[in-house]
Hints:
9 strands; alpha+beta
Amino acid sequence: MNISDFRASMTGDGARPNLFRITINLPAALQSLSKGNAFGNKLGMTARASQIPGSTIGKVPTQYMGREVYLAGNRTFQDWTVTIINDEDFIVRRALERWMSAINSHVSNVRGAGLSGPNSYVADAIVEQLSKNGPDIVIAKYKMIATWPTDLAPIQLDWGQNDVLEEFDVTFSMDAWDDEDGDLS
């Protein structure tokens, strides 16, 4: 193999990690937390970093005639983290705070009204890998199924920070993820 073979095999000069889009709409029971779809629209613009999701297939050790043999176990899905740029309207931050409070409130330790079961507080999330050939050309699409925020990181404040925008991370749990074609079920 030589450099010419490598170049010829590199479709589109390779995918770029800075070309992506994230979409999450609040669960129907929580739509009132965001004016219209202000949360979803703002998140799409301010989600600065994330990942295409991963998964792990566990291994089950078993003994056979004095040797350890591994068999395939169950699949697990890691949490999914998004880094968000904060702006002065706090639309995304406040919606996430209220989403988490509706799941379990700060003071009374109860679930919010209208959230009767686990499907009432989850939402599907989508991360799309975009092409260098245009912002509307999606080259890979993943749907995280039944996500909900589990960790909202603090926003660091510091008098010594000049010319820096606030950022925070939010971590979501998910039941599973599927690819664009939906053929990984």
